Known about the structure:
The complex is a heterodimer.
Chain A: H1 2-6, H2 20-56, E1 59-64, H3 72-92, E2 96-101, H4 104-115, E3 128-134, H5 142-152, E4 156-158, H6 160-204, H7 206-214, H8 219-257, H9 271-278, H10 280-300
Antiparallel strand pairs in A: 1-3, 1-4, 2-3
Chain B: E1 20-30, E2 36-46, E3 50-55, H1 61-68, E4 76-81, E5 84-85, H2 91-98, E6 101-104, H3 116-126, H4 131-144, H5 160-172, E7 178-182, H6 190-205, E8 209-213, H7 217-222, E9 227-231, E10 234-238, E11 241-243, E12 246-248
Helix pairs in contact in B: 3-4, 3-5
Amino acid sequence: MSKDIISSRKQEVPLQDDSSNVFLQVMVCIAVFLFGVTLAGTLSVNAMIKTWNDSILGALTVQIMPVVENNKEAMTAEVLRQQSKAVEFLNEWPGVEKATPLSDKQLNRLLQPWLGDGVDVSDLPAPRLIDVKVKKGMHINFSKLAESLVKEIPLASVDDHKIWLDKLIKFADSLRLLAMVVLILVVAVTSGAIFYCTQTSLGLHHHVIEILHLMGAKDTYVAQQYARKACFLGFMGGIYGLILVIPTIFVISGLASQIEGGIVSETTLSMMDWLIIFSLPLFSCFISMITAYYTVKHTLIKFM
Amino acid sequence: MLFKTEGERILIKSVSDMDMIIGMQNVGIRYGQGAEILSDINMALKRGSFHFLTGKSGAGKTSLLSMMYLSQKASRGIVKIFGRNVTYTDRDSLALLRRKIGVVFQDFRLLDHMSAFDNVALPLRVCGMDEREVRKRVTELLQWVELDKKIKEPASTLSGGEKQRVAIARAVINRPEILLADEPTGNVDSDIAYKLMKLFVELNKLGTTVVIATHSEKLITDFPFPRLHLQNRGLKIYRPIIEDNTVKGGIHE
């Protein structure tokens, strides 16, 4: 189809003098700029989510909190009872590969750096830990798991930074959706501007187009000339927009990297992301061309 | 029998569908809500015929021609060009029909920002002809109309007579089956006018159907072809009367 749109030789409609040419280029430039910045944001949020997801996936830890009670033996028994109940519960949870309670020895080793040698864990009101391995490729809803677990086993708690990350990912997902809406709006507004500029131009060159029709030109012949012009304007506007986008991305990621060790430290774009951003002028060129072509085809029906 | 033969407005009584290249039946034209400027036009022009179209200014000559070159649709009635009812023909097919019709407009309708060459090349280019062939044909024809020195000049810088010759060259470059001309000899001196008429006659001999709208009584007497005369919004046809080898082209009521 695109070959059909641009395969004509001579430019009879004097489109190069249209005053809307500059306007369209500025319009496309701004659109590509907005599009580029939003896209870079979305892509780096994607990268961030992926890193977070990787850290979330794989494993989590469940704690069984100690109950402070005078009867030490009863306390230990209750905690161990709840622990085995929790292990059973977790092993039945979909997506969990294996839940293993940490032995006293393992717990001792964990506490050793703080408490030194010769401490018996069973004497202390320290929480018991369960290591949960998640099946590969499975995504577990941590908030739901935590909720159900606590209902069953009141002493259990899922380490809460995972839940927090889970919520953050959800927030990022909706942010991504919002970005998509922005991208669609930018494309729609640009197409609208091209539509009205093309219609105005068709009115302006009415007499030339009528002569072309009288000589036996089909609507496609005229549409090709407009498509070619729009293709050029869309590409040039896209290039100008790109020239603005690239430094902007660097400035933003520079600012982000100043937040030391923060969650935005991973805002680097991959090679693929850059490729997408660099292909924006081709995208704007294509959108302009298609819009102009079909605007002409649609509008000429009302002509002679 | 294509048209009913009743009343004195019926012009050509029986032309078969095969022979007929331009046909009109009870055609009327009005612009907007105004009165009809042409009413009940009936005609059937034979393939390969040559007609003058006459009538006072404002009689509707240009409107009638513009229906023939498919720029104007009839307000009522049936118009058939190349045997096709143009009311029911889609846009792309109309474009293909127009490629077989050459038109010389009264106001030339050249593309002022383009050269004489590009103007003449236009009908060939819209057909997608190979550029080498376009170059060959256009150069040849511009030489013939003695404009080879002005080939690169923009149309806007040409004189009235030169523009007219460019317009005529553009009309015939495609070897059209129908040639329509609106006052084609109005802006040129009598020598060139005579030469142009010779060209039209030559094309007619090769099979082109020609209709020429003109005011020039001299042209009509010099070239004995039937004339379509517009009068009182209707159309009458007059055959040339030849007495003592001279043509009396006047209107005989």
